[in-house]
Amino acid sequence: MKKHAKPAVPLLILAAAIVTAALLVVSLLGGKTGGVHREIGASEQYTHMDIRHAMAVVEWRFRFGFRGCRLLELTYDEEFSAARSDEWAAQYGAEEAVVLTSSFEVGESGGSLNPNSTYRNYQWILTRSSGGRWELQTCGYG
Q1: Are 124 and 99 a contacting pair, CB within 8 Å?
Q2: pLDDT of residue 111
Q3: Dihedral sign from CA coordinates of 60, 66, 72, 77
Q4: Cystine design at 106: which of 31, 34, 110, 142 (Cβ 3.0–4.6 Å)?
């Protein structure tokens, strides 16, 4: 009797190929984050790792949503962040909020952004509850 391959194996191979292709497309066409300067100021509220995790969420979103752009700098300033973090947390029903700022360059094909320009102090609002994962809620100029 002939054994047939399980249908799940070809589906797993296909899924892996699709994920690999998607990652390749994003790396070629998405926002560039290599070489970004991360500035983490002193914090009494968050650990260095807490802030690094929040920055990783921003970098991931930048790679997928800012085609043709290059992230230059990502900053956490506790005084700046704390000024409105309670409002942001309440707005999104979370226990905590953090505000990061960034600078990035926009290439020739800026989409909805101004082509061939540099954005400075662009804000990223992230929230979390119970010490969980940071979630990006919104970004832009506030």
Answers
A1: yes
A2: 72
A3: negative
A4: 110
Which residue type sits at 27? S
- The DSSP result for 29-95, as a single string, is HS-B-TTPEEEE---SSS-HHHHHHHHHHHHHHHHHH-TTEEEEEEEE-HHHHHTTHHHHHHHTT-S
Question: Helix (H, G, I), strand (E, B), or coil: what is residue 11?
Answer: helix
User: In 3-state terms, what secondary structure has residue 18?
Assistant: helix
Quick one: tokens of 44? 């009494």
How many Å apart are CA 26 and CA 19, to the nearest integer?
A: 11
Are 36 and 61 within 8 A, CB to CB?
no
Instruction: Give the rounded percent of residues in the chain with a pLDDT score beyond 90.
Output: 73
Distance CA 102, CA 121 (A): 5
Q: What is the pTM of this model?
A: 0.79
Residue 10, pLDDT score: 67
User: Please, are residues 42 and 78 in contact by the beta-carbon 8 Å criterion?
Assistant: yes
- How remote is the C-alpha of 6 from its chain's centroid? 38
- Give the number of other Cβ atoms within 10 Å of residue 30's Cβ: 18
